[in-house]
Amino acid sequence: FALFARRLERDPCYWPTAQDRFGHFYATAVVRQAERRVIPPLLKDLIDRHRELALASPAEMIGLFKYVMYLLCYYGDKEERRD
After folding, report:
1. Half-sphere exposure of 5 (CA within 13 A, CB side)
2. Residues in contact with 40: Cβ distance below 8 Å, sequence separation at least 6, in sequence order
3. Interval 52-71: pLDDT, tens
4. Alpha helices of the chain — where are they, by DSSP H?
5. What distance in Å separates the CA atoms of residue 56 and residue 62, rounded to the nearest whole number?
6. Helix or strand or coil: residue 48?
7. pLDDT given at position 29
8. Phi, psi of 56, deg, nearest 5
9. What distance lies between CA 24 and its chain's CA centroid?
10. What is the pTM of this model?
11. Residue among 22, 17, 9 at smallest CA distance from 66
């Protein structure tokens, strides 16, 4: 997600490629990792609910990317504190 969302932020012409890569990201990173319980169910639910919106415009995709990164940082910090 970071690879194509960050590039999209710098280059709006990258939008069609970012849309294609989002589909690959969703199938491999979101669905598969949720089934393996690598990502929290809350994160999968968030992406499921906002997938169509993220595919509607570059600004929405970048916004979802940033929000997901914040959540991953938060959950990562919580997991480290449990150890």
Report:
1. 18
2. 71, 75
3. 999 999 999 999 999 988 88
4. 2-10, 15-25, 32-35, 41-54, 58-82
5. 11
6. helix
7. 86
8. -85, -30
9. 11
10. 0.76
11. 9
Contact between 32 and 19 (Cβ < 8 Å)? no
- As given in the structure block, the two tokens for residue 76 are 């990562």
Residue 56 in 3-state DSSP?
A: coil
Per the structure block, which two tokens stand in for 69? 């990164």
Instruction: Measure the CA angle with vertex 54, ends 49 and 60; round to 5°.
Output: 120
Contacts of 37 by beta carbon, 8 Å cutoff, 6+ apart: none
What is the distance between the alpha carbons of residues 56 and 51, in angstroms, rounded to a whole number? 9
Question: And the tokens for 63?
Answer: 């916004």
Q: Using one digit for the tens of pLDDT, what is the confidence trace for 28-61?
A: 889 998 999 888 888 899 999 999 999 999 999 9
CA dihedral 48, 68, 22, 53 (to 10 degrees): 50
Those residues whose C-beta lies under 8 Å from the C-beta of residue 25, and which sit 6 or more positions away, are 1, 4
